[in-house]
Amino acid sequence: MKKADIVEFFARLAEDNPAPETELEYVNDFTLLVAVVLSAQATDVGVNKATRRLFQEVQTPEAMVALGEDGLKEHIKTIGLFNAKAKNVIALSEQLIAEHGSEVPADRDALERLPGVGRKTANVVMNSAFGAETFAVDTHIFRVGNRTGLAPGKTPLAVEKKLEKAVPQPFRLHAHHWLILHGRYVCKARTPECWRCKVADLCAFRPKSSAPKQNRAAKLKGDM
User: Fold this and answer.
1) Peptide bond into 192 cis (omega under 30)
2) Which of 5, 38, 158, 167 lies deepest, with the highest CB count within 10 Å?
3) d(CA 159, CA 123)
């Protein structure tokens, strides 16, 4: 994708949603970190359902350790891989207490040393909690980056590096949220909804998908 097209691509997404945010619900930096760890291979909707009550009771590493692994499992048992995630959340809480004064570190390398925290999770926390211009490449961003030609790559890290080079100011802070939301609601995995995509003309994906017949009929009726 050409530089001018990239600017236009993000300008349109920004016009549609000027201040995008994560759809995960959280109270503070610690609960954000926990929510992102829990969201691996799970939907934000599912995580939010599980954590609403949890985050009313637990908002600090100390409270999480006091809750304990079994107590945490009761809250998150509807989330995939909840056994391993509960173990990691308790361990990272203990590490935050021991090594970071119970604070979430504003450093990607330090975050990645926490149990259950990989590069994607660290990038989300750095961006949402600390305003860092990071690009957390999940399945949605990986798909959009490759489909559109914005940031093609064979691995999430390759796509991330391409985004680092390609995304210009003033779009860098919110870029990964725009891409996640675009992939989640428009550029869907099975069938991208090209007929209602605001950046379809800038996108390299071919062939473009057409609106379902009933939608086309409704549109024609509305145009009459």
Assistant:
1) no
2) 38
3) 14
pLDDT confidence of residue 222: 53
- The Cα 70–Cα 67 span in angstroms is 8
Alpha-carbon Rg of the chain, whole angstroms?
20
List active site positions.
120, 138
- The amino acid sitting at 119 is R
Spatial distance between the Cα atoms of 23 and 181, rounded to a whole number of angstroms: 9
Altogether, the residues listed in the chain come to a count of 224
| Cα of 152 vs its chain's centroid, Å | 18
pLDDT score at 218: 53
Separation CA 76–CA 141 (nearest Å): 26
Best CA proximity match to 175, nearest among 163, 186, 162, 192: 163
Helix axes 156-166, 139-148, angle to 10 degrees: 60
State the helix-helix crossing angle for 175-185 and 3-16, rounded to 10 degrees: 70
Pick from 75, 95, 68: nearest CA to 35: 75
Neighbour-count burial of 48, counting CB atoms closer than 10 A to its CB (0-12 exposed, 13-18 middle, 19+ buried) = middle
User: Alpha-carbon distance 143 to 173, whole Å?
Assistant: 20
Q: Which of 8, 7, 22 is nearest to 176 (CA)?
A: 22
d(CA 195, CA 49): 32
Is residue 68 within 8 Å of residue 54, measured between CB atoms? no
